[in-house]
Write a structure and sequence with these properties.
The chain has helices at residues 2-9, 24-37, 41-47, 58-66, 92-96, 118-126, 140-150, 157-167, 171-184, 193-200, 208-216, 220-232, 239-257, 264-271, 276-288, 291-308, 321-330; strands spanning 16-21, 48-52, 75-80, 102-109, 128-131, 154-155, 190-191. It is of the alpha/beta class. The strands form 2 sheets. A 5-stranded parallel beta sheet has the order 2-3-4-1-5, with helices on both faces. The chain has a two-stranded parallel sheet with strand order 6-7. The longest helix has 19 residues, at 239-257.
Length: 331
């Protein structure tokens, strides 16, 4: 992605760009740069078109690309939501011989274009291709940490984890929240867990990490106190987020339980945790939960995930489920 952006900023343009994949955020970033920076405002009126796959036919895109620019060096044609275009493959002839004075940007979001097909192979040979892969949940903390550092701020280990767990892998929301943090933390400054809690609205004492910690140590009073807070504040602590976070937590606990003799550093790499403090918490949890109990917890979490979505749950509102869930985990 950075290579494409660098070339665009240097005025090194390709006739065709294909941005495709499951993660929409990076596709939006690249297409937004092309939309906003290649032509000036005066040139855009006659030479830039935004087209949408669902309401556009391939021939219309080809016709737009085949016109000559007016009082500009290039025409810019951006095809958004290309995955919705039924006859996308009918652009094959144009792609084989594109206009050198047109920049065609094809945005194929939410899924990959099949680059093994004849059409996909043709695009790979003629276009600058960027595949925007989805970031898995267990990779989000490292992504947050790296991005914050790239913006010349220093995150505490818990700060990055808090942001990742509470926002998840929705990169658009994630970057919006990070930009809010960057407004209050200048370059060279530290982003602490207290700042994250304040800016993103996470309770210092009653959050899912404190619940994990209480469950890890089998602190029954603390676990139920947090669960009741979640019950009273369901919008801040939706059941689906609690269940998914606890599932990731116990998945790592299970791995630790199978590798108790592994040194902390190697064990941390296995579970995607790079701070020895958190590795010790997982070790503590592994002591308190036998592998058979962890397998039972997976079944419990699946049950309550379905209940939170209304499956087999006609009598209890969602916000009452979390106390019941914690009780079953601790039983």
């Amino acid at each position: 992605m950075q290579k494409i952006l660098s070339d665009l900023k240097a005025g090194q343009y390709a006739p065709i760009y294909l941005f495709h994949g499951e993660e929409a955020y990076f596709i939006d970033q690249l297409s937004a740069y092309i939309e906003n920076h290649i032509l000036n405002e005066g040139e855009k009126a006659f030479n830039q078109m935004i087209m949408y796959g669902k309401e556009t036919q391939a021939q219309q895109v080809v016709d737009a690309c085949s016109q000559f620019p007016m009082m500009a060096s290039h025409r810019v044609i951006i095809l958004k939501e290309a995955q919705e275009m039924r006859d996308l493959k009918k652009m094959e002839k144009y792609i084989q011989n594109p206009s050198p004075s047109t920049i065609l940007c094809i945005c194929h979001k939410h899924k990959k274009l099949d680059t093994r097909s004849a059409f996909g192979k043709l695009l790979k040979s003629k276009a600058v291709v960027f595949e925007s892969a989805k970031i898995y949940d267990n990779k989000v903390p490292a992504y947050v940490d790296q991005f914050i550092k790239s913006k010349k701020r220093v995150p505490t280990p818990l700060a990055s984890k808090l942001i990742a767990e509470y926002i998840g892998a929705d990169l658009s929301t994630l970057h919006n929240e990070l930009e809010k943090l960057f407004l209050v933390v200048p370059e060279g400054g530290s982003i602490t867990d207290e700042q994250v809690q304040k800016q993103i609205g996470i309770s210092k004492e009653y959050n899912v990490f404190e619940l994990q910690s209480a469950l890890a140590s089998k602190n029954v009073l603390k676990a139920f106190r947090i669960a009741r807070y979640f019950q009273a504040n369901p919008k801040k602590n939706p059941m689906i987020m609690v269940v998914s976070t606890l599932y990731r937590f116990f998945s790592k606990v299970w791995i630790v339980s199978q590798n108790q003799g592994t040194p902390d550093q190697a064990l941390g790499k296995m579970i995607g945790v790079y701070n020895s403090f958190f590795v010790k918490e997982y070790r503590l949890a592994a002591k308190h939960y036998h592998p058979l109990k962890i397998e039972e917890i997976f079944s419990i979490l699946k049950e309550y995930d379905l209940k939170s979505k209304g499956v087999n749950n006609r009598s209890y509102p969602e916000n009452t489920l979390v106390v019941e869930l914690v009780g079953k985990i601790l039983a």
